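User: Please fill in residues for this 356-position structure.
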């Protein structure tokens, strides 16, 4: 039973929530229309009750997208379930279609980190290589040329749904990049180089959200100077059209589309072409929902800003918030926030009770 265990991680998908316990068990609840919960929900009311997913192995990390979920086990295996979609609808999780139960995604490789976009999955291996699968339309797989980006073109669905390696050469060098972290937004992907901490990005770039100061979608990884030299970024998360970054000193930056206040720079709707710093206390984690942003401070407070429509900002109303605002409320009065995750229309906080 989930009540007898401690939750060590919680992530929000499009319309579902996934929790990892200290025993490495995975619990899901929410919408299961396309198998995102990874368990049978034929019994009425069972979707909204946190229930365990039958998993081979002990989970250590979670990721979730619009209609899919993935878990990394302590043996470096990746299991996923659910469905990927593109502009034309369902494409399946594998070439066998929607998967309602966990299926191993990358047998034979030892994975150390996973990241989910809206409809794509990234797996970072112990060798520092990244494998990608899912929707390729905006370039988010980093390995599929534009001519094959719609359902794999003449190469077929298998070309995008079977995880395959992303080839990436180092900035100003002929050597292969070795990565040590990977991040994803709705249609974008970001990765950090092991030796230098440099950031590479690929995918949708229609509002400068990759940080490359241009508006071209990137179908292969490109070096992001603004996140590698001008600012030393250690964590990236992204929504649909914006990204939020954390640097080595705990400072927070946003880049991309400005509407609805998601960048936190006040009432201006102008986009930011390169990451722009926000006035916040030192932070330990940042996160983005579709058009919202979050920052968790070192002292366990949480700030939220952006589009208020789904009441995702936890402010009790649905007004847009254009600068970082401290999230308050009865439930947070006696708790410190450890982590935040932004879903399609909801937000999940992981918190710990403060000794009274």
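Assistant: Residues filled in for all 356 positions:
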């Amino acid at each position: 039973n989930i009540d007898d265990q401690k939750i060590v991680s919680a992530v929000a998908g499009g319309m579902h929530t996934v929790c990892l316990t200290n025993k490495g068990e995975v619990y899901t609840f929410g919408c299961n229309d396309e198998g995102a919960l990874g368990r049978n929900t034929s019994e009425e009311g069972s979707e909204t009750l946190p229930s365990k997913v039958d998993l081979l192995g002990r989970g250590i990390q979670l990721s979730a997208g619009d209609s899919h979920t993935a878990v990394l086990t302590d043996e470096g295996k990746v299991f996923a379930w659910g469905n990927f979609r593109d502009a034309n609808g369902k494409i399946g999780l594998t070439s066998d279609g929607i998967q309602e139960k966990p299926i191993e995604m990358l047998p034979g490789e030892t994975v150390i980190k996973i990241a989910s976009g809206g409809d794509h999955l990234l797996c970072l291996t112990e060798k520092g290589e990244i494998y990608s699968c899912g929707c390729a339309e905006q370039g988010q797989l980093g390995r599929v040329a534009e001519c094959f980006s719609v359902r794999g073109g003449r190469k077929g669905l298998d070309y995008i749904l079977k995880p395959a390696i992303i080839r990436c050469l180092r900035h100003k060098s002929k050597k292969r990049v070795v990565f040590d972290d990977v991040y994803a937004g709705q249609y974008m992907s970001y990765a950090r180089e092991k030796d230098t901490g440099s950031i590479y990005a690929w995918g949708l770039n229609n509002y400068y959200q990759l940080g490359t100061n241009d508006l071209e979608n990137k179908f292969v990884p490109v070096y992001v100077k603004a996140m590698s030299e001008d600012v030393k970024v250690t964590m990236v998360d992204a929504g649909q059209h914006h990204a939020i970054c954390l640097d080595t000193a705990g400072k927070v930056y946003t880049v991309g589309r400005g509407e609805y206040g998601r960048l936190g720079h006040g009432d201006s709707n102008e986009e930011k072409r390169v990451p722009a710093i926000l006035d916040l206390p030192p932070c330990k984690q940042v996160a983005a929902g579709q058009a919202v942003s979050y920052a968790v401070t070192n002292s366990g407070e949480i700030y939220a800003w952006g589009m208020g429509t789904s009441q995702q900002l936890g402010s009790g109303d649905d007004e847009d918030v254009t600068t970082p605002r401290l999230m308050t409320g009865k439930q947070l009065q006696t708790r410190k926030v450890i982590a935040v995750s932004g879903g399609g229309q909801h937000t999940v906080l992981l918190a710990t009770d403060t000794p009274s």
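For context: The helical segments are 158-161, 225-228, 330-333.
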